[in-house]
Amino acid sequence: MSKAQKSKRFKYALETLLKVRAIREKQAQERFQKAEILHQEEMKREEELKRFESEKYQELRDIMSGKTVLTDVQMVMMRKAHLDTIKEQVIQQEERTKAAEEKKEEMRLELIATVRNRKIIEKDKQKTRDEWRKIMNKEDNKFLDDIAVIGFENKSRARKAAENKP
Questions:
Q1: I want to staple 100 with a disulfide (CB 3.0 to 4.6 A). Which of 27, 39, 117, 142 is the partner?
Q2: How far apart are the first and last CA of the chain?
Q3: How far apart are CA 104 and CA 36, in angstroms?
């Protein structure tokens, strides 16, 4: 993606993009956490409704079997109608829980995509830094070679000058 350039310090050209991707990842993480919390709350409500429903069914069974004193047939009919209402509420809550789970899964996939995007840029930054180090090492080696050549030439001139002086 980006190319390394000769400079004293490493400067990544796409640093701002990396920051933006990190911010987007953080936002996606927050959205995923909210969706997860919402899903947990919906599951809790569903469990409470199902528990309440099973308690009311047990009470109705007790009345129907004769364990508790039957006061009125109208009362049994009202309990049955109430149980039907609760059953509808349970079905609606199951749908809300399923929708919350789908939303959570969607946010998880979005989070994975944003993490992947940030890691791509980080990997590019590392590769660019490695290229920069290679370039700088070459420059350092050139500089050292030049110093060695200059030193060798100075020694050669000094020898020649010493040989020509006698």
A1: 39
A2: 64
A3: 6
